[in-house]
Write a structure and sequence with these properties.
Order of helices and strands: HHHHHHHHHHHHHH
Largest sheet: none
Number of strands: 0
Structural class: mainly alpha
Radius of gyration: 23 Å
CATH superfamily: MetI-like
Shape: globular
C-alpha cells in the first residue's frame, strides 16, 4: 500500500528524471538564441536578449536548407518503405506457421545487433561499384536494411496481441487474406505501426555514419552539415545550436502527431 510520502518521493523522482532529460534540449534551444558573448559567458547567462541572427545565417546558407531537405526525403521515404514492407512481413510472422520461420525471425532481429561501423566499408565499396554514391537511393536502401527489422519486430508483437477469433470470423464472412490484413490488423495494429514509424524516422533522420561515408556534396544530410561547422580555430556555437534545433524539430512534430498512438503501441502486446 502506497503512502502519501512514497507518492511524494515518486513524484520528485519523476521530476528529477524529467528535468535531467529536458535540460539538454533547453540548453540547445536557448543557446541558439544567444549571441556569441552570452554563449561563452562564465558563469552562464540565464537571462539574455534573444537574437535570431543564427537562424537568419542558417536559412541564408543554401547548403543547410538543402541538407534539411535531403534529410526529409531520405527519412520520409525510408519510413514509408519500412512500414509498407514491414507490416505484411510482421503479419505473416504473427499469424502463419511455415518452414524457416524461426530462422527468419532471428535474421530480422540480428540485423540490429551488427555494429554499423563494421559494414561501412563494404557498403561503401558496393555503392562505389554500383555508381550510387552521393544519391538519395543509396541512403534509403541502407537505412531500410536497419529500420525494416524494427518495424517487423514491433508490429509482429502487436499483431500477435490481436485475437485470432476476429480473423476466423472474417473468414466465415468470406473475407480474403489481404482484406483481413487491411481491414482488421492494420486498424487494430495502428498504435504499433505508429511507434515503429516514429523509431524508423528518428533513426533515419539522426544517422550520421553512413551519411558521412556515402555522400559528398549533393545529398549531404542535416547531421553531416552540422558536423561540418566544427572546423578551424573558432566554433560557431550559435550556428551549431540553431542547426541542432532545426534537426530536432521535425522529429518532435512527427512524434506529437502520432503521440496518441504511441503509449498504447508501446504497451499493447506486453500483456495478453
Amino acid at each position: 500500500m502506497t503512502t502519501p510520502f512514497s507518492r511524494f518521493l515518486h513524484a520528485v523522482g519523476l521530476l528529477v528524471v524529467l528535468a535531467f532529460t529536458i535540460f539538454p534540449f533547453y540548453w540547445m534551444v536557448s543557446s541558439s538564441f544567444k549571441d556569441q558573448s552570452d554563449l561563452l559567458a562564465s558563469p552562464p547567462n540565464w537571462l539574455f536578449t534573444p537574437t535570431l541572427a543564427h537562424y537568419a545565417e542558417i536559412f541564408a546558407d543554401q547548403k543547410v536548407v538543402a541538407a534539411i531537405g535531403n534529410s526529409l526525403i531520405v527519412a520520409g521515404c525510408t519510413t514509408l518503405l519500412a512500414v509498407l514492407l514491414g507490416t505484411p512481413a510482421a503479419y505473416a510472422l504473427a499469424r502463419f506457421e511455415f518452414r524457416g520461420k524461426t530462422d527468419l525471425w532471428f535474421w530480422f532481429i540480428s540485423n540490429r545487433m551488427i555494429s554499423p561501423i563494421v559494414l561501412a566499408l563494404p557498403i561503401y565499396l558496393l555503392a562505389l561499384q554500383a555508381k550510387m554514391l552521393d544519391t538519395h537511393l543509396v541512403l534509403i536502401l541502407v537505412y531500410l536494411t536497419f529500420n525494416l527489422p524494427i518495424v517487423v519486430w514491433i508490429c509482429t508483437d502487436q499483431f500477435r496481441s490481436i485475437p485470432a477469433d476476429l480473423e476466423q470470423a472474417a473468414r466465415l464472412d468470406g473475407a480474403s487474406q489481404f482484406m483481413i490484413f487491411r481491414k482488421i490488423y492494420v486498424p487494430l495494429g495502428l498504435p504499433g505501426i505508429a511507434v515503429s514509424a516514429i523509431f524508423s524516422f528518428i533513426f533515419s533522420w539522426n544517422e550520421l555514419l553512413y551519411a558521412l561515408v556515402l555522400t559528398r556534396r549533393s545529398v549531404q544530410t542535416a547531421p553531416v552539415i552540422a558536423t561540418s561547422f566544427m572546423s578551424g580555430y573558432e566554433l560557431p556555437w550559435g550556428k551549431i545550436m540553431a542547426t541542432g534545433t532545426l534537426i530536432v524539430l521535425p522529429v518532435t512534430i512527427f512524434a506529437l502527431i502520432v503521440s496518441r498512438h504511441m503509449i498504447r503501441g508501446l504497451t499493447m502486446g506486453a500483456t495478453k
